[in-house]
Model the fold of this input.
Amino acid sequence: MPERFKDITSSRHHGALRSEDELARWYFVLRSPLRLKIIRLLGERGPLPFKELKRELGAGVGTIYYHLSVMSDLIGQDEKKRYYLNELGMRVFTALRDGTFSSVVGAPTAIEKVLKFFLLSPLFRTACEDVKVGVPVALLIVLLGAFGCSQARLMPVLLFYIRTSAAGALELFLHYLGQQMLIFLACEGLSILFLRRLGGEHQLLVGLGVASLPLAIFPYIYMFLPYELSCRLLPFFHLWSILLVCSAISLGKGVRLDRSLPIGLALMFINMLVLAFLGLLRF
Done:
């Protein structure tokens, strides 16, 4: 066990947060039940290897790495690659144990609720952590989008849409599925390029399926709303899709959302290049 872990656990002075302001710095960290569980596990049991953390948490590899990445200022690794709470992490754990954190972490604000709604946070978390839920939900969303395209006569180009009268319903259905697989391969390749991160392919695939919800919804909006209005809404759905793709990469590859944003921007740039090459920048 690292010496600083022993020193912290043996001293009340180092174990307590000095003020609620210090605890408030970790407001969003403490909002996650899984991250709270990690803090309590490491605080109560000391250094743990990743395999044991995974067994105790019952979450996917990518999900756990994501939360550990978010908590990088609270957690360290010893020479045996075991995770432990550093000095700041132990002060947070002590505040949790003493009930200090409950006075700082209250109910979500209205803005946070809206942000979570648009980022599909609860759905993403459930889908990526529970395979029995995630796979059917992701598959249903993708099939919903494929069917919508076949009926609306819309052809997807990565995260964008163009109208077509030449392609048949079955061709559009299959083309949509192919584009979803292409998005997955692009995200996987960009993750290797930008993040040097392998693994988590299953969670990424499920996450991207969930992230395709805006693309799946748009064909139905296109069919039921006036053409001019649906055209104005398309860029919004495109940007929404990019944000959700970033969230999917964040959870699938176990990185913070800010580290996945360059991949989303790169994918958007590639999408624009493809549309420009095809002469289809206008809807």
